[in-house]
Every structure is written in C-alpha cells, then in structure tokens.
Amino acid sequence: MSTCPCHPVGYDSRTKDGSQPVCQLHAQGRFCPLVAYLGGAILKFTRNMLNEQTLRNLLTRVAQREQDVDDALAALRVLPFEEVDGFAKIDHHRDLRRGFPEVVYCAGKTPQQTAAIIERLAARASRVLGTRASAEHFEAAVARVPDLNYDETARALYLDLRPDEPRRDGVVLAAAGTSDLPVAEEAARTLDLMGHAPHRLYDIGVAGLHRMLHHLPILRQANVVIVVAGMEGALPGVVAGLIEPPVIAVPTSVGYGASFNGLAALLGMLNSCSPGVAVVNIDNGYGAAHVAAAINSRMPNSQQPLMSQLSREASGDLPSVPSPGTPGEG
Fold first, then answer.
1. Were both Cys, which of 101, 305, 307, 317 would link to 125 (CB 3.0–4.6 Å)?
2. What would the pLDDT profile of 319-330 be if each residue is shown by its tens digit?
3. Residues 194, 155 contacting (CB under 8 angstroms)
4. 3-state class of 287 per DSSP?
5. What is 81-110 written as a DSSP string?
6. What is the DSSP letter of 23?
7. Strands 277-279 and 35-38: what pairing?
8. Dihedral of CA 229/235/240/242: which sign?
C-alpha cells in the first residue's frame, strides 16, 4: 500500500515514472474522482477525506490543463454535506447530481429545526421547497428567510428567486376529486419549482366519467400524466387505458373507513389492468412530480402551442378537433 498524491489514504498502486507512488487512475494519467473505479471495486470516500488541499489539487490540475473537466466534475458531484447543529446533514450538491436541491420533509421536524435547514439551503440555492409544512413551520422559517412563501393548499413552504423563468409544458396533472387537491397541489408546486408548468384537470373522477372524457385530447397530447385519486383509486387505470403517455398514479388517504387511509387506493392502482401505470406512495405528490419532471425534461419542448390550443378547445373557446379513437367514433 502506498499513498496517491490526491488522497490522504493509501491504495494498491503503481508507479507512473519510478519516483512517485500513484493510484491506478493516476498511473493512467487521470485524476481520481472522489468515487473511483479501481481494480473492480468502488471506493467511496468519506467527508473527512475531502479537504481544501484536495480541492486545490483538483482545480490546479484543471487550470494547468492536466485534468479533464468531465473527470473534475465527477469529483465535485460528491462534495460533502453541511452539518446543521447535530440534527441534519444538508446535501448541497444534490442539485448537481439530481437537477434539483434537497427538499425538506417538514413533518416530524420542529419549527426551529425546519427554519435552520431552510435558512442554510436558501443561502446557496435560488429555489427551495419544504413539504408537509404547517403554518408554524412557515412562521419560524420566514423569520430567517424573508422571501419565503407558503402554499396553504399544498402544505408547502417555498422560495423562488427565478419566478419569471420559462417553464416546460407537457405534464398533465389530474385529480379525481376536490378532496385530493392537497396532494395534487403538492405535485403542482414541486413541478413549478422544477421548471415545469402542469396543466391541471381537477374533479374528473370515475363517478362522472364524462368529465374525464371531455379532456381526452389534452391527456393524449401530454408527455406524462399524473393522476391523483383516493377512494377505490380507479381513475389512473381508466386514464391509462385510453391514452399513450405514461401515467403516474398517486393514491390519497381520502375515503371512508374501508379505504384504510389510502391502502385500498394503493392496492387498486398496483393491481391496475391497464399497462403503463407507475404508482408512488400514498399522498406522495412530491414523489410523483419528481418522476414526471424527470420524464418531461427529456422530451422535446414542443407541446406549448398545441396544449394551449387544446385547453381552449376543452373550455369551449375553440371548435373541437376530432381525436382518433374517441368513444363513439367509427
């Protein structure tokens, strides 16, 4: 065992020029990312292994054109977290790895804990989201972050310092009933902060199926559809059986006793006969939105004019254009 210049610990190594022991990637002329593939093993570096000298070595090699920028970026993707008063470790580089900063699940946290975490996130990110937040959580957090907002329906606190930035179209967000709106709006708020503009279709449950059929042109033109439903959870399967886009089903805890706080809807969605249905956890609007954003981000952003026109058709502002396969057509 010997020590590579870029690491404070030793690894099985080879000598590049006979004078200095280096790890295998250095021997190949490459700088070691902080998660490196060496000899068939993944070496995961701890927080204590990253220090100022390590970063200085990395940046110096990039500046001197001795290090490939892509390899340096791979190293930076695993930079350490920030410790917060012993009760939280904030992953500030999740945005770099996942495309969106760490989201705070406020339920179970005290208002003071939530405020401290939100304050640290807001110091480095232009968009911050906290889900399942109470008014008390918001009051404590806004005292430290004055630009913070509270979405009472979605039960979310959020910061958006780029509100005028364009959003991508292509996500349709459907809810079976008005009682499902807290979960649906959690998804909507998440999508908005992730840079997407969901098209809302609310109160279109299976008890009045004609309400959903009225919006089939919009549903068919989506890149991805989120369907939120409680009770027996039938709506996602019905929608998926009529459209091509993938459907993300969100069971809610809405319903009487035998709904078992959303378990009936969850099991119904998991057992859907219609193909193309993916199911997230009960009341998890945030999780559904994150998946939808990942799908929509990889699609051509060409739906805006068509989706806008279809929306106007559905509201009666424009004459309807027949859609292939609509029930009742030959």
1. 101
2. 333 333 333 322
3. no
4. helix
5. PEEETTTEEE-TTHHHHHSSPPPEE-TTS-
6. -
7. unpaired
8. negative
What stretches of the chain show up as alpha helix (H) in DSSP? 24-27, 52-63, 69-76, 94-98, 111-122, 135-142, 181-193, 209-213, 216-221, 235-240, 263-270, 285-296, 304-314
Helix (H) or strand (E) holding 38: strand 35-38
Give per-residue pLDDT as tens, 39-91: 322 233 333 334 556 667 778 888 888 888 887 776 666 566 777 778 888 87
| CA atoms in the 13 A half-sphere facing the CB of 111 | 11
- DSSP result, 185-205: HHHHHHHHHTTB--EEEES--
| N residues, the chain | 330
Tokens of 264: 């009936």
**Residue 90 main-chain phi, psi, to 5 deg:** -85, 125
Distance CA 146, CA 115 (A): 11
What pairs with residue 88 in β-bridges? 84
Strands in 199-202's sheet, in edge-to-edge order, are 199-202, 171-175, 224-229, 247-251, 277-279
Angle between helix axes 111-122 and 135-142 (nearest 10 degrees) is 50
Q: Tell me how far the alpha carbon of residue 260 is from its chain's centroid.
A: 28
The model carries a pTM of: 0.72
CB-side neighbour CA atoms (13 Å) of 270: 9
